[in-house]
Amino acid sequence: MEKLNNSIDRSWIDKWNHPFIISGPCSAESEQQILETAKRLNSSYVQGFRAGIWKPRTKPNNFEGIGKKGLEWLHKVKKSTGLMVATEIANAEHVKLAISFGIDILWIGARSTASPFAIQEIADALEKENNKIILVKNPIHPDIELWIGALERLSGKGIRKLGVIHRGFYTYQNSRYRNQPNWNLVLNFRTLLPRIPILCDPSHICGKTEGILDIAKKAYHFQYEGLMIESHCDPDQAWSDAQQQITPENLLKMLKTLTHLEKSDQKSQRSLDSFRILIDELDENIISLLAERMDISKKLGTLKKSSDISIFQPSRWKDIMKKSITFGKSLEISEKFLEEVFQLLHQESIKVQNQIR
């Protein structure tokens, strides 16, 4: 891992004296849409223009990207605006085509990062293209080893201009996010690989426009090097992920707000806010789990009612307390604290079941 960390070439991002911003639509839809969106972006704040050309979908028969002709449109953006252009690649053929059209930045999506076979194919195809900027999105599930393994495969082929994109992680819990940020995991990743530039993708974390600025602010507090935010000249008409794309003008407002924060924020305040962000995320997870627990209590109450079973089961309660305290002790949590917490949970569960009775 030390070898990987020391091999990173940060020149592509360190030359900027402000965060590296990539923006553009989720998908390339038409030449007009691509060019209009790009021209409305402010190049004083935005360095890279993005558009998905190939769109991997969970199920078939959905829009899966415009294909090769979209690369021609990106090439026109590069010539007419001077912006660097970026797109997602998922296999060797994508690599070949993207390079032939002069695409500057290639990113590897979350699904591909989760597949060592796919990563190796991409790495092999990039072996002689070691001047390209390659960004690797985190895998769908919170697996640091998969993420690092993808970087090691690319580095092993001589690719030095590497970076990662934090786009959040899938969760089975109820969440206000499309993908859970899991900030602490990314901070652990940075501890292991401190030289890897990290960009945040608030669009995919939120899954909707609401909250994008808040996530971007949090990424700033954690000193990320940049952002990837989806923008579209007419978001309501977007062919994919319309709910999470903003106009170039709204993007500019957000970036100006972040610039103001950068100038006014003190280091001590940033450190304090960073810990608060971690606590807030954990609190949200606790609340989501409590909601799931109460939902199961309701179902249990219905079952007990139909089967004429007593709501309070002393032996079951004793077993829960014993297991919970033993597990808590292994994590160095106070026995008294756990007893108080589980007493409250038990009382609320009984209350919920009694209401069903």
From TrEMBL:
<dbReference type="Pfam" id="PF00793">
    <property type="entry name" value="DAHP_synth_1"/>
</dbReference>
<dbReference type="Pfam" id="PF01817">
    <property type="entry name" value="CM_2"/>
</dbReference>
<protein>
    <recommendedName>
        <fullName>chorismate mutase</fullName>
        <ecNumber>5.4.99.5</ecNumber>
    </recommendedName>
</protein>
<dbReference type="InterPro" id="IPR013785">
    <property type="entry name" value="Aldolase_TIM"/>
</dbReference>
<keyword id="KW-0808">Transferase</keyword>
<dbReference type="InterPro" id="IPR006218">
    <property type="entry name" value="DAHP1/KDSA"/>
</dbReference>
<feature type="domain" description="Chorismate mutase">
    <location>
        <begin position="266"/>
        <end position="357"/>
    </location>
</feature>
<dbReference type="InterPro" id="IPR052899">
    <property type="entry name" value="Class-I_DAHP_synthase"/>
</dbReference>
<dbReference type="InterPro" id="IPR002701">
    <property type="entry name" value="CM_II_prokaryot"/>
</dbReference>
<dbReference type="InterPro" id="IPR036263">
    <property type="entry name" value="Chorismate_II_sf"/>
</dbReference>
<dbReference type="InterPro" id="IPR036979">
    <property type="entry name" value="CM_dom_sf"/>
</dbReference>
